Structures
1.
Amino acid sequence: DIQMTQSPSSLSASVGDRVTITCRASQGIRNDLGWYQQRPGKAPKRLIYAASSLQGGVPSRFSGSGSGTEFTLTISSLQPEDFATYYCLQHNTYPFTFGPGTKVDVK
Amino acid sequence: EVQLVESGGGVVQPGGSLRLSCAGSGFTFSNFWMSWVRQTPGKGLEWAANIKQDGSEEHYVDSVKGRFTISRDNAKNSLYLQINGLSVEDTAVYYCAVGAAAGFWGQGTLVTVSS
């Protein structure tokens, strides 16, 4: 199975900060990666698909980049509603696998 | 508006069975792969299974193979997950999602396995 790792596992930030989360795959997955946001008690919501394409309705402060084994989710200016946990998902090879998550909380 | 509504969760004893359902609306259900993803309490996400538009292809994570069966009824815009041989490790919120890569999710249904 393809193993997905995320770093950091958690981070503390302030409103207006630039936040970067990294996801690494144990083998190349081209750009078959999505990023998801999960707020407490809610279902995950996909923000980014195909590594760098913004899902419809998602604010432009979110962006994704990368290909192969290393991927990045960037929030350009953190907003109050962005404090949440973020996951990556590879869908290149079955079984699809999620990263362990990165929790973004208030500094 | 795309909507997915899961149902069928509950409390079940170890070794028991459940059938989860997911009703889709607001999109052409028969045009999309559909997926099930689960989340154990306080932990991360695990992709469980998905099924092709016409039901001709299914995929499962190893931990559920032989115990979980995904199916769909396009005439009813519904997705199902038959879960047999439940163990405490299967306690989780089960989400259905549109697409092979889980693009849009329902609100989830909680399955609790306990004696």
2.
Amino acid sequence: EMVMTQSPATLSVSPGQRATLSCRASESVYSHLAWYQQKPGQAPRLLIYDASTRATGVPARFSGSGSGTEFTLTISSLQSEDFAVYYCQQYNNWWTFGQGTKVEIK
Amino acid sequence: EVQLVETGGGLIQPGGSLRLSCAASGFTVSSNFMSWVRQAPGKGLEWVSVIYRDGTSTYYADSVKGRFTISRDNSKNTLYLQMNSLSAEDTAVYYCARGWRSAITPLDYWGQGTLVTVSS
């Protein structure tokens, strides 16, 4: 069973600062890894796919990296609209989500 | 403009059945891999089911296998999820989502979700 583990569970960051979120897969997913942003009461929004490709309309301050089992989402300079929950998802073997990282205002 | 609109959620008693619908516009459901994903209150995301482009290949999470059935109506450009033998553990917001590539695909468009509450 594929397990995706995100860390930390909660990240407190000041506006304008950098945020780094981690995601680990229990087995290799190659580059078949996506990141989603979800705000309260809204559906998830695709940010990054294939580990490092930004989806249409996603600002350049969002970047993804990694392959195999270790992945990172970086938000270079947090804006007010970026405070949300972020999920990683592997789609190499069906679809499995991490438990989420909440990015909150420090 | 791509849009997905789910309907059919509501309050249902344990053991009951419910059918969710997801009406698509701006693209053709049959040309994509369509999934259902759910989110229990205050919890994370759980993939539930997928239907492939061929319309006959369908797959399910172990948690719903044998109880849920995914299908689509090409003439209505609509995706469905038939849910039987519901229990409290099925209480969640149910989203439909599009996978635009092959079977190895992320989900690029999501509906707004419909809430299913299983309770007596």
3.
Amino acid sequence: GDSVTQMEGPVTLSEEAFLTINCTYTATGYPSLFWYVQYPGEGLQLLLKATKADDKGSNKGFEATYRKETTSFHLEKGSVQVSDSAVYFCAFLTQGGSEKLVFGKGTKLTVNP
Amino acid sequence: DTEVTQTPKHLVMGMTNKKSLKCEQHMGHRAMYWYKQKAKKPPELMFVYSYEKLSINESVPSRFSPECPNSSLLNLHLHALQPEDSALYLCASSQDGRTGEQYFGPGTRLTVT
């Protein structure tokens, strides 16, 4: 069935470190892919998206590339800041009929100064 | 205005109470959602309204009753809840439910005693 697998957290980094959060998905066809972020005490915010193979989504220094061959959508940032501390969710939109987001379990990132 | 508002922010209710959660958006979105989020978990979809009609009910117990009075408002009526229903309830909206780009409110933190 439809599912998203994210790397287990929590992830703790120092400021200016490189970030990678792995995400792979199992879905029918080639769905649109998303990264959502949830800051403490808030709802989720769309961080970036990609709608077809080889698309690169980017926002606020974060990037992710839609890899059809490996069904992956890994999140990267070259230099993290303390303000990036949050929970990151990888997700895809199911296709056909009832369209809904399927989320991964989330990865908590803590960035220390 | 890209904001989804939710009231109340916090709610404590007994198992015999009746209460309602409210959600509002003024982005002209035609799809609205209710999610339930337990601590350290991803959001779980409960209901979807598309063009003011209920389009998805994820087998939610009848003690949760959604209502969409108009295209800007979404309510969740609560009755005879159980302690395990304690969670963060998130409302979201999207243009038409087909893009996966959802705007989330900050949530209502519900505690059932």
